[in-house]
Structures are given as structure tokens and as C-alpha cells.
Amino acid sequence: MKRSVKSFLQAPSNLSQWTHSLSIRPSSTSALSFSENPLQITESKHSHLTKLSSNHAYMDQMLRQMINNEPIDQFNLMKLIDFSVSTHGFAASAHLFTQFDGLIDSNLCNSVIKCYTDSNKHLHSVFVYTQMWRNGIFPDSSTFPTVLKSVAQLCRQELGKAIHCCIIQMGLDSNVYVSTALVNMYGLCSSVNDARQVFDEMPERNVVSWNALITGYNHNRMFREVIDVFREMQIAGAKPVEVTMVGVLMACAHLGALNQGRWIDEYMDQNRLRLNVFVGTALIDMYAKCGVVDEAEKIFKAMRVKNIYTWNVLISGYAMNGRGESALQAFSGMIRMEKFKPDEVTFLGVLCACCHQGLVNEGRMYFTSMKDKFGLRPRIEHYGCMVDLLGRAGLLDEALQLIQSMSMKPDPIIWRELLGACRIHGNIQLGEFAKEKLLELEPNNGENYLLLANLYARHRRWDKVEQVREMMDHRRIRKVPGCSSIEIDHMVYEFVVTNGMKPGFEDIYELLADMNKKLKLAGYVADTGMASYDIEEEEKEDSLMYHSEKLALAFGLLKSPSGLTLRIVKNLRICQDCHGFFKVVSKVYERDISVRDRNRFHHFVGGVCSCNDYW
To answer: Is the pLDDT of residue 32 over 60?
Structure first.
């Protein structure tokens, strides 16, 4: 049986460990190294304030108040603490908590912590919290939610556990606001199992508690669990709010779960939840990432208020669905008619649109205008788009020149885009150069070796392919397995590439064999150029039949009614053979098929793909 996080922290040895790490005893130093040694207080209040007042007018006023024995209110004391921390650092400022111990109480500390947290000065918040303990000021139920928010943003899980121990000791772990803050902290610190356990042990929950758990699962890319939690929420009778819907729609978008996303859309309409800018933007993103751009457009037009993020998801949605011209028109409307100033994300969507459509001249123009017209400095992602755009167009020398002109060091993605372009256009010499750069930066990424092996395989350089294999074996490098999912009747089914037939898949294998025969009669020829060179041609064709997207496709044909569009999501780029296979299936079986791979959408209709074979 799994031990709860509370019982684990309550164990005497663990309680001592976490309490020590927080350094709540006055004689100890802080866990976050605010001071290297215990602070030696040798100065009077007056001399300390004299140092602090050297460059701020109201500090002079406070010094005069101290000399004349006039009282100092807590508001000015808050300003003094903030000024001291900002100007002189944590170690010097710790002195104030001792010198003004009569004035500093939990309410003052709570106000300072909240101010720092709201201002994204999270280390400052934690500093004030530790000083409370060191000076005998006990935190309360208002302290913990705020300081835990800062801990979550700092991603300091060890400190979070230490604070959790203090919460247990003070008997505040049943407080709904404190426990919700713990769920949020553990989730954002990538300890989502602990977040779930704290959530399960809560005697009382509110909608914020459910939202915190949903956020934690989204943050850790556990999107199926988000859908499960939303269902639990409904069973428990908790009423979702707009924030809940944004989190669930985000999960639907990543999963490509269109039916679930549509249900959420209808649910919001029936329950009259507001279509505010955040919900509307999440809906546009969901529909775009599920390949239904027309629905995304309807939501966009229905929104009364839009922000830059709304425009960005629309432009990116057009781009990933192969509607580059629509993306560029949206960009033009955004800056000319709506007077929005584009940001770096906007241009990333625009450049992706140019890349997917092969719009080289337009891509060059927009890339240049980022800096010259809009004052934006291209980031490495923008350079990656340009290298991909130029490389796919066969302009390999220009792509290399752009890399060499970069003001920043090229990352693995840049060199991988160049290597991928070399594979497409068969430039072995430049490909090997890109490979060397890649292996310097990412020696353990299997994708780099596979791109090089595919480049050699295209030119039937089997000796080189074997060398790459041996290098991978020697370094114990494994490639990421292909994984595809398909949504049928509100359930998402997942398939992983196999090397042969697996039990329980008999119906799928039987259908795939039948499909293969029919497609060959319609002109399909398996692309075995990338298959292993040391097996027979028939075996090569058999190995291609077990790719994850083909398994998902066969399952969809078996389990869905005719006329329904099959929507598949794949974690990797769709291979050449599967791309050709899906085109012929869409014609022979008269089924529209939508595939979202790692880079973009492929919409197969009547034997044609929306990418026009440019991918």
C-alpha cells in the first residue's frame, strides 16, 4: 500500500530532516544560504539605519524618528525591509527582524510576503518566511498559501517539503487554502504523485483545489489524467469555472481529443460559462491542434475581446494545418486593422507558415522585418525556422551561411534541421559536417544518428549505415519508439510501433494485410528505402506494416462508422511510406484522415494530402 506524503513527513527521522533543512532554529543558518554564517549583531539600530539611509530620502526621515524616539508605523517598516533587501541583500537585512522585533509580527510578515510574491520576487518571499521562524514569529494560515506559491515558482521542492512539515506540526494541513497551495506546489515542482496524495487526503475541497490538480497534471504533460480529474470533478458535484475549462481544453489540444474538446465547448455553452479572452483563446488552440480550423475561426470571430495570445494561436493554427496564406493574412490584419504589435511568438507562427508552404521569399522578408521594422531580436527558434525553410527549398549553402552569421551559438535543433535538409537533398558532405556538430552537443540523442543513417540509406551507402548502427550500439543509444493515438467514442487509444505481431491485435493485423493487397492494386508501392538493408524486400514491407500510425488507422477503420474523419496524433514525424499509404487509403476507402505529427498536420482527402507532399 502506498504511504501518504503526510505520514512520510510525520516520521520522526524525516520530520527532523525537513525541519533542519528549513533552519527554523534561531542559531542555525538559512537553507537558502541567505547568510553564510550566523549573523553577528554588533550594530545599534541607529548606525544600521544610517548605512541604509545613504541614498533614499524616507530613510533619513526614519532615522530622525528613531533619534527623537518617535514611533515608526508598520507601513514604513515594510518599506524599510524592502529597501534593505533590494539594496543590501539578505544577510544585512536579517538584522532588521531582530532590531525591530517588537514591531514585526505575523500580519506584517504576511503583507511583505504577499507583496513580494505578487511582484514575482519569490526568493525575497522565502527570505521573509525564514526570518519569521528565526525570530520566533509563527506563521499562520494566511502565510503558507502565499509562500508556497513562491516556492512553487522557484521549484524548490525540498524547501516545500520542509514547509509542509511545519504545516503538519501546526495542525494546518486540514485547512483547504493551505492544502490547495500544497497541491499546487507539488504539481509545479514535478512531484505530481505527492500533489495527488495531498489532494486525496483533503477533508474539504473547493474548485481552486481541483484547478490546482489539473494545472499540476498539465504542467507535467499528463494530459490523460487531466481528463480523468475533470470527470472526477463532475462526479463529485464540484462546479467548474472558466479556469477549469482552460486547463481541460489545454489537455484536449495536446491529446488531439476533438470529441472531448467539443463536449467541453457544448458544456460551457449549456452552463453559460463566459467566453472570456482566456477561454476563447484556449478553444481556438484546441480546435486548431485537433485539425478543425473552421471551428477555430468561428470562435475567433465570436470573441469580442482579443489579445496578442488570441492572434498568436490563430496564426500558429493556420500554419500547422498547412494554411500558410491564411496565416499571413491574419498577421496582416492583426497589425494593420487591429493595431496589435506582434511579439516573438507571432513571428514564430508566421515563419512556420512560410516553412510549411515553402514561401522562401516571404520568409526572408518577415525574418528581416522582425528587427528592422518591429525592433524584435530573432531568437534561436526563429533561426531554426529559417534554416528549415531554406534547407527544404534546397538552399543549403544559404542555410549554412545563416547559421554561421548567428549572434548566438547554434543549438542541436539548428544542426538537426540542416542535417534533415541534407537527407532530403542527398548532400552527404554537408550532412556529415552537421552530424559532427550535433554529436558534440547531443551525443546521446538517437534521432541524430537516425537522420544520418537515413541519409546514407538514401544513397545505398550500407557500410556507412552499419557504422552508424555500431556507434549507437556501442554508446547504448536507443531511438524513441513511434507512438500514435486515435480518439474513438470519447476514448483515446494509443499504439506503439512493433517489430511483429502482438497478442490481442489480430483483427488489426488481419485488416492491415487486406488493406495492403487492395492498396497495391490501386498503385501503392511500399517505400522500403529506409528499411534495414540486411533483410529481404518482403520482410522490409512487413516491418513497415507495424508502424504505430498504421495500427491506429486500422483500429479507426474497424471501430468507427463510415464517413467519420479519422484523427491520429503521432509523437514523431510521419515517415515517407506511411504518408504514401495514407494518401491511397483516403482514396480507396473513401475516408478523410487527419494526422498530426511532431511538426504539422497532414489532411488526407481523396488521395491528396494538404501538405502537397512538401514536408
So the answer is: no
Element (H, E) at 493: strand 491-496
Q: What is the pTM of this model?
A: 0.81
Output the nine-digit C-alpha cell for 6.
503526510
Provide the grid cell at 551: 495500427
DSSP 39-50: ----S-HHHHHH
Neighbours of 412 (CB within 10 A): 17
Q: What is the pLDDT of residues 94-141, one digit of tens each?
A: 767 776 777 788 998 899 899 889 999 999 999 999 988 888 889 999
CB–CB of 92/83 below 8 Å? no
Q: Look at residue 10 and tell me whether its pLDDT is greater than 70.
A: no
Which residue's C-alpha cell is 551561411?
401
Q: DSSP string covering 497-519, please? A: --SS--TT-HHHHHHHHHHHHHH
Give the number of other CB atoms < 10 A from CB of residue 328. 20
369 band by pLDDT with thresholds 50, 70 and 90: very high
Annotate 405-469 with DSSP letters as a single string.
Answer: T-SS---HHHHHHHHHHHHHHT-HHHHHHHHHHHHHH-TT-HHHHHHHHHHHHHTT-HHHHHHHH
Buried b (16+ CB within 10 A) or exposed e, 379-401: eebbbbbbbbbbbbbebbebbbe
The single residue listed with the C-alpha cell 508566421 is 350
